Amino acid sequence: MSEPFVSANGEAFDWSAVPQLPFERFADGLLGALGAGQRAAAFFGVATGAGTELVAVLASERDGLLRWSRTLVAGSSFPALTPHAPELHLFEREIAEQHGLRPEGHPWSKPVRFVATTQRHRSPAEPASRPAPPEVGVTDFFRVEGHEVHEVAVGPVHAGVIEPGHFRFQCHGEEVLHLEISLGYQHRGVERALAAGPDKRGPHYAETLAGDTTVGHATAYCQVLEALGGVRVPARAQALRGVALELERIANHVGDLGALAGDVAYLPTASFCGRLRGEFLNLTAELCGSRFGRGLVRPGGVRFDVPAPLGRSVLSRLDTALGEVNDAVGLLMDAPSVQARFEETGRVSAATASSIGLVGPAARASGLPRDARHDFPHGVYRFHQLPVTVWHTGDVFARAHVRRKEVERSGTFVRRQLEGLPGGALESAPAAPRPGQACAVLVEGWRGELCHVALTDLRGRFSTYKVVDPSFHNWLGLALALRGQPISDFPLCNKSFNLSYCGFDL
Amino acid sequence: MLKLLGTRLRQGHRTTRYPAEPPALPPRFRGRPVIDPTRCEGGCQSCAEACPTDAIALDGTAPRVDLGRCLFCTDCERACPGGAVVFARDHRLAARTRADLVVPGSDPLAPSCAALDAKLRALFGRSLKLRQVSAGGCNGCEADVNVLGTIAFDLGRFGIQMVASPRHADGLLVTGPVSDHMKLALEKTWAAVPAPKLVIAVGACAISGGPYAGHPETHDGCDTIVPVDLYIPGCPPHPFTILDGLLCLLGRIESGARR
Fold first, then answer.
1. Considering only CA atoms, which of A359, A369, A344 is closest in space to residue A475?
2. Measured between alpha carbons, how far is A2 from A31 in angstroms, rounded to an integer?
């Protein structure tokens, strides 16, 4: 059996170097690798003249490398791999939706994002007899039948200021037997539009893939372009990207801790953290004028410098705010009433987390030491390592605890960077991507692993651009965490994952 | 309990003194663009070519910026060889009509954001309840609307509140370009709000589609679907920009000039 092609994170190479395997060998290799501890970072289709190519990018924490393989599906279906590897379930559904291929034997073959009404019946190749695609949210929800079993439907419009999605609970009394999450409401064609690039909207698409992960997705997008164009990013720019990425993590984690406090009615911490999250966003605004880091990260480097006086003032404000976070979160985690609500709630075991491919704080809270900053270091993380924060209980407490520790550690990291910023330029001249190349980039955003994959055509334009937001891996984790829980704990469990709708819906 | 009280004391009173005092904005804040026609080297299209959303166009001799499309990325400012476009620090950007979002306006001294008429002000001026609908938003605008509810801004002190049901609302606050998949939900939510009702479009997406303008998966903003009473530009707008728009609409502060 031929070995898969191996690349490093953020390394561009000739796409022709990845051998096209017959489906059986592709499937055996893929399932064998997943069984041996590798993970699917991306699994997607590429339309070619001869049919649809399936491409798998596997990540291995053991050696920090990415493994690529591909196969051609000439017909309209392929044997589903999901029955053997549940973590592929959503990838195969996505391939079905985007390429019209049927994964035969998929236990759960349903739409992922649904097709916009404005985009239906566009393909002249489609036979007129084919039934129209379903309306968003219209799907055969899994149903539990029986005496006193009832169903609760929530969304797409929710009660708070949050994004839309539909949740369907199967309950017996208060107990949730099953939760199905149906998304797609935020689908705005961003991945399709990215694939038509690179162009001047590209950085803006990246920054709004998931607006709360502006720095993370923009960094991934820029690293893809830089690798494809052979551009070396100055050390100072890489350090500043790291600072912004960690500030983004701190702000969101602090906001989440406050929201968790709110969901168990522990109001002091809810109030304090609501305000403190803004302090960290304001620090990002000190760097670049935008609280979300818009306009900071661009292909070639960063657009804003941090002169020494600004660095000192940011650090001093950071220290104050982190001290206040420590106070506020300490209150929360020490309160017996909070512990009683956090512990044993919404548990996801390490075995489950591993089998469905969880990433980010949710995976680390289930005892899986996965962190792209540590396992696949890129940019500044090659030189300044961060410890991986792991907790073993897999419950709401664990997901809160991991966030709390990550806030501290990211704070230390930001301090280290700002105290010793390397000199030199902020930006290198961008270069056009080389033709016929491929590249995958993993960045550890605050929710987990952001994976961007690009292939270029013979003119150096993208022929494929694939985005895998951590939410794509993790929504099923939330659904499983709810099993056996009282339905009233849904907000708390939901907040402990705090997943992105727009990052999933693309 | 003592620890809690001690922490409460240390955290202190943290609500901004705005509008009694001007808002604290970072030095690098990118607000209302200022156009200097004398610096425009007529005919050069650098700014328009650089703009990712066609927000800036040469109108005869000088550029005009449509704040409803602008992402405040400053790509035009960087592209302009003469320095004719500069993003200044004025955070006051809201307007009542789509035409009033164009900078420079035809009447630079006119207020950029007129208050509601006396009848609506009598209804909503001291109590405005809004239902938020995210229709394809990226969670940037949503996050900076949400932050108005924290103790830092304390929206409640102005009598403005986000409510959970459209039946309890006086209007909608819409974010996102209106994805096709959210069109029906937006229409139904709007229909469920009792009249008289307002619609507030927050962010470039909700006004014009933002970076998603022209995508078949979206509807280029919400004013093709619901009638908009207030436009608040930005990507995303700063919380103070949103607050300024809301307070101008209710006539609780005086609007800035259009310039």
1. A359
2. 15
pLDDT along chain B (259 residues), means of 10: 87 88 93 90 86 90 91 94 92 92 78 88 94 95 94 94 95 96 95 96 97 94 95 96 95 72
SS3 B253: coil
Tokens, residue A254: 């602090």
Per-residue tokens: B15: 């609500």
Which residue, chain included where needed, has tokens 């026609």? B37
Question: What does pTM read for this prediction?
Answer: 0.95
DSSP secondary structure of A30-48: HHHHHHTT-EEEEEEEEEE
Please indicate whether, in this complex, the C-beta atoms of B179 and A185 are within 8 angstroms of each other: yes
Residues of A in contact with B238 (CB under 8 A): 291
- What's the farthest any 2 CA atoms get from each other in chain B? 69
Say if the Cβ atoms of A331 and B176 lie within 8 Å. no
Q: How many CB pairs under 8 A join A and B?
A: 186
Which helix (H) or strand (E) segment holds residue B81: the answer is none
Strand partners, B102: B66
Put simply, whether A501 touches B (Cβ < 8 Å) is yes
Helices (H), A289-307: none
Of A135, A129, A133, A131, the C-alpha closest to A156 is A135
CA atoms within 13 A on the CB side of B105: 20
Distances from the Cα of A477 to the Cα of A59, A172, A347, A445, A505, angstroms? 19, 21, 10, 18, 17
Kindly write down the DSSP assignment for every residue of A231-242, as one continuous string.
PPPPHHHHHHHH
d(CA A471, CA B171): 31
Reduced to 3 states (helix: H, G, I; strand: E, B; else coil), residue A425 is coil
Chain A positions in Cβ-Cβ contact with residue B191 (cut-off 8 Å): none
**In 3D, which of B72, B195, B198, B67 has the Cα closest to residue B132?**
B198
**At residue A502, what is the residue type?**
C
Q: Please tell me the distance from the alpha carbon of residue B242 to that of residue B93, in angstroms, as a whole number.
A: 9
Chain A residue numbers with beta carbons less than 8 Å from the beta carbon of B29 are: 285, 289
Beta bridge partners of A74: none
What is the C-alpha separation between A459 and B96, in angstroms, rounded? 46
Dihedral of the CA atoms B103, B107, B108, B114 (nearest 10)? -90
B 90-129: CB under 8 A from A? none
Closest by Cα among B176, B106, B95, B168 to B135: B176
- Which residue's entry shows tokens 């929206």? B155
Domains in chain A with CATH codes: 5-112 (3.30.460.80), 190-471 (1.10.645.10)
**The pLDDT of residue A121 is above 60:** no
Name all domains of chain B by residue range, CATH numbers in brackets. 33-87 (3.30.70.20), 118-249 (3.40.50.12280)
ipTM attached to this prediction: 0.94
Kindly write down the DSSP assignment for every residue of A224-271, as one continuous string: HHHHHHTPPPPHHHHHHHHHHHHHHHHHHHHHHHHHHHHHTT-HHHHH
* Best B16, B69, B138, B173 residue to mutate vs chain A (most A CBs within 10 Å): B138
Q: Which residues pair with A56 in a beta bridge?
A: A43, A69
Tell me whether residues B27 and A290 touch, CB distance under 8 A. Answer: no
Q: How many CA atoms lie within 13 A of B192 on its CB side?
A: 18
Q: How many residues does chain B have?
A: 259
